[in-house]
C-alpha cells in the first residue's frame, strides 16, 4: 500500500484525550494491545498522549516533522501506525483544510483496562489467536484475578433499585453521537436472523440482546462470515432455555471459519487497499451497469426490496422467503440481491417462491460470490435461454435451381441481421431495466 504523501512533514496537528485513562493503561498497551497492532502504533499512542500535555501550554499546532524526530520514524510508517490505532479504536482523526496547509486533530480514545479488555469479545478473541492459548491463559489469569471473590456473594443494590428519576418521556434527547469505546464496525442487518428465530418459535429478545448483538457483529467481522453462517452458529450455541451460550457461539464461528478458509489463521493484517479507493471506484463507475453492480454489492436484500417498493417496508413474507433461501443455499448478500432483481424482472415484479428457489439452487452450484459474477452469470443464462427458444427455419421447397452456396449465404445474412436486431433490442431493454432500478434507488435515497 502506497502511503507516501498521505501526510506532509510541514502539516500540523493538535492532540486531545477523550475521557480518562484507567490506572493500569500502560499494562494494557504493553501486554494486550501491542501484540495486535505492533510496537510503532503503541509508541505513537504514548507519544501523542504526552504531547497533549505539552500542547495545552502552546497556541500553535505541532508539525509532523517534530513527530518524526520524536519517534525516529519516516512519515509513511507513522501514517501506517496511525491507521492501526484508528482501526483498533484508540484514535479518531479529524482534518481541516486551510489556505496554507492541512491541520489534523488527533483525538485519543481511552484504552481498555485489562479487565475490560478480556470482557470484550472481539479484542480478547484476537489476542487469543495472536499469542496462543498458553500465553493467553497466563495473561487472563493474571489480570482477571479478583480479590472480591473471597468476600462472598455480591448483593449490592443498584441505582435503579434505590432511586427513581424522571420518566423516560421527559428525558432530554441527545443530538450528539455518544462516544463508544472499542473497535468501530459497520452495522449488521439482523432481520434475516430475527425471521429465522421467529420461524423456529425462539424468542428473539432472549437471543438478540444488546450485548449479544454487539458480540455477534464482532464475530461476524472477525471471522468474515456471512449472515447465514452466523445464523447456523447461533442455532448451534443455543441452550435449552433458548439463551445464547457465548463461548459455544465463538467456538462455532471459529469452526465455520476453519472449514471455510482451511489453513488460514486469525491475525490482524492490513488490507491491500483502503476504503477510500473503493469509494472512488464507486463514484467513477463508467456505465449504468457498473453503478447498479456497486449498489447491489453494498446494500442488504431488505434494502433492495424496500427500494423496489418505492421506499415502503418489505413484507414479512418476502423477508422470510429471502432469508430461508439465503440460509439453505448459502448465497452471499450481493448474489442474493442480483437474484432478487433477476427473478422480479423475469416474473413481472412478482417474487415467486418456487422460481426463486429453483434459480437459487442453480446459482449456488455455480459458486457465485459477488454481484458482478452473478450479473454476468444471469446474462449468460438469458442469452442461452433465448438461443434455445429460436425456431429452426424450415427449408422451403422451390422449383428454381439455386446453388447451395447461394442459399447458405442468403440464410446466413438473414440470421446475422435478425441476430443483430435482437441483440440491439435486448441491450436496449436491459438498459431500460437498469435505468429503472437506478431511478428507484436515487428517488428513495433523496
From TrEMBL:
Family in the record: Belongs to the DnaB/DnaD family.
Domain Replicative helicase loading/DNA remodeling protein DnaB N-terminal winged helix: 26-229
Provenance organism: Virgibacillus pantothenticus
Coiled coil spans: 407-434
Keywords in alphabetical order: Coiled coil
Protein name per Swiss-Prot or TrEMBL: Chromosome replication initiation protein
InterPro entries: DnaB/C_C (IPR006343), WHD_DnaB (IPR058660)
Superkingdom per UniProt: Bacteria
Domain (DnaB/C C-terminal) ranges: 314-376
Lyase among keywords: no
